[in-house]
Design brief:
Layout: E1 3-10, H1 12-16, H2 20-29, E2 33-40, H3 44-50, H4 60-67, E3 72-80, H5 82-90, H6 103-107, E4 116-118, H7 122-132
Antiparallel strand pairs: 1-3, 1-4, 2-3
The protein binds adenosine-3',5'-cyclic-monophosphate.
Keywords: ATP-binding, Cytoplasm, Kinase, Magnesium, Metal-binding, Nucleotide metabolism, Nucleotide-binding, Phosphoprotein, Transferase
Subunit structure: Homotetramer.
GO cellular component, one term: cytoplasm
Length: about 140
């Protein structure tokens, strides 16, 4: 199986409740390694660029407001099939649909305040990682 990297964000609803360590414990238990991690306050420009693909959606403004409402933790995760492995352990976007034991079932508050983001493809993972990390800040 292929070792991949994926990009993760622990969102403001989770940092606000001091859940960074709890989320990281689920990530590590799933066999993923946190090989890069930074706590930042996202600017509106960063959030708008990151979510550009959603800019025509009715919730875009709300999404940017939320992602800039408090600190986030941006991460690079590595492991076997990391993109899918992380999406599996995150659970469904809407916590009401998420499986038991997933991060969103355990911690998410709503479809908007859903605690974590994970890349949806290896190609997007590379783009998203580049937006927040230089290679010097990643150690696998
Ligand atoms: P994420 O994986 O970060 O990518 C896009 C985000 O949009 C998604 O997680 C949700 O948090 C958010 N989102 C999706 N649907 C809605 C919605 N109906 N209302 C508010 N936010 C949403």
């Amino acid at each position: 199986m292929a070792i991949q990297r994926t990009f993760s964000i622990i969102k403001p609803d989770a940092t606000e409740r001091n859940l960074t360590g709890a989320v990281n414990a689920v990530i590590e238990k799933a066999g993923l390694r946190i090989i890069g991690q930074r706590r930042i306050q996202m600017t509106r420009a960063q959030a708008e660029r990151f979510y550009d693909v959603h800019k025509e959606r009715p919730f875009f403004g709300e999404l940017v407001d939320f992602m800039t409402s408090g600190p986030v933790v941006v991460q690079v995760l590595e492991g076997e099939n990391a993109v899918k492995a992380y999406r599996d352990v995150m659970g469904a976007t809407n916590p009401a649909d998420a499986e038991e034991g997933t991060i969103r079932k355990l911690y998410a508050k709503s479809i908007g305040e859903n605690s974590v983001h994970g890349s949806d493809s290896e190609e997007n993972a590379a783009i998203e990682i580049r937006q927040f990390f230089s290679e010097a800040d990643i150690a696998g």
